[in-house]
Fold this protein.
Amino acid sequence: MRFGDVHIHRLDHGDFTLVDQATLAREGRQGEPHDQVRTRTKVERELRISVARSKTRNWCFFEPDRAARTTSRTRCAHALKALREDLSYPGMGTRPVTVTIDERKLARLDGWVRAGRYENRSRAIDAALDLLERRNARPTLEWALAHPLVESGSAEWEAAQRESAAIDRFFDSADDDVDAPD
Amino acid sequence: MRIDRGVACWATLPSGFGHDQGTRPVLVLSRLGTEPRPRRGIVVPISTVTPRVGYPLSWDVPAAWGLARPSWALVDHVRSLPADRLRDPFAETTRDELSEILDALGELLGAAIDLAPR
């Protein structure tokens, strides 16, 4: 491994990170298993990324417009995923798996691929997993009700009650006006 | 901008019953761009009053919409309105934003996919 090379490590969730030589040496991780080794220059040129330092390691950041740097791990992971898909690093960050799918669902999946909505089955399933991930991050109804935005009985609570009633009156009036019998 | 799914516009009452209650901003959730045009549109009202409960019962309107005050789309107040009551579109959701709102509605209706233990 030459100075300036970077280790490419797959992360558990399928994205990957790049760790540079200096970080590996500082953390005593030179012998650590990795997925690929590329020169930093080549990585930066091909993937248009830069490597920046966080508390524990050097994360790579995607700069599509060479302007603002992303700073959060989540955004970085998303950017890397986009890189993998858009710039076609063959096989990097992906792994073939065998799954069992209901035949009817598989037929629908293939229908989406035939219709051109997705490039292939893998892309369709990948998109579905992204959707699940986004939805999983959102609050449930039970959680929201247990964590109200305003305190019960407060002035804001009363204001929300009044607003709710005003909205109902408004909508009722809209219907009255149109649907009232002649 | 045409009034259709994902567009924020004003709902009006021709006869009104108060000086400032003759119009309300709403977000259209149903498809209105088809021909023939549906007679009624499904909407959620937009309010500047802090709702009692957050998502999925309400949805924070992004600042990019340019509203003068912080606002919320009240998902649990979903209603249908005569389509001809809708006018003056002023903002449009992104695909992701609309997806978030529809997911909120799905959560309220129990139609959301049960994804994983939380």
Remarks:
- The CA atoms of residues 13 and 43 of chain A lie 21 Å apart.
